[in-house]
Amino acid sequence: MAFKRCPNCGGPLQLFRELTDAEKAHVRKEKPDFAPETYIRCTQEGCRRYQRKLNWQDGGNFPPPEDA
User: Fold this and answer.
1) 68 pLDDT tier (thresholds 50, 70, 90)
2) Are the beta carbons of 52 and 59 closer than 8 angstroms?
3) Around Cβ 34, how many Cβ atoms within 10 Å?
4) Of 68, 52, 50, which Cα lies nearest the Cα of 60?
5) What three-state secondary structure class fits 65?
6) Parallel, antiparallel, or unpaired for β 49-52 and 55-61?
7) What kind and span of H or E run contains 23?
8) 38 and 52 in contact (C-beta within 8 Å)?
9) What's the pLDDT score for residue 67?
10) Which residue, 8, 28, 5, is CA-closest to 16?
11) CA–CA separation, 48 and 64 (whole Å)
């Protein structure tokens, strides 16, 4: 886990975690140029942001949960 800038959350740095296997599968489809292991996910409640560990500008959002 690491604290990084999250453009979705703004404000102070947010805590990011490694991706789960399901999240890695999504990132593999959306960002085929980089290994999913190079991405992390924001842990702020309600945030769906994922981004590269070394480049906060390269990322995206996971789709909303099916039950939402």
Assistant:
1) low
2) yes
3) 13
4) 50
5) coil
6) antiparallel
7) helix 21-30
8) yes
9) 61
10) 5
11) 8
The string of pLDDT tens digits covering residues 3-55 is 999 999 988 999 999 999 999 999 999 999 999 999 999 999 999 999 999 99
Nearest partner of 51 among 11, 12, 14, judged by Cα? 14
Structure tokens at 5: 């800038």
pTM confidence score: 0.89
Residue 6 tokens, joined: 């999250």
37, 40, 41, 61, 67 from 52: Cα distances, Å: 9, 6, 9, 12, 27
30 by Cβ neighbours in 10 Å (0-12 / 13-18 / 19+) ranks as middle
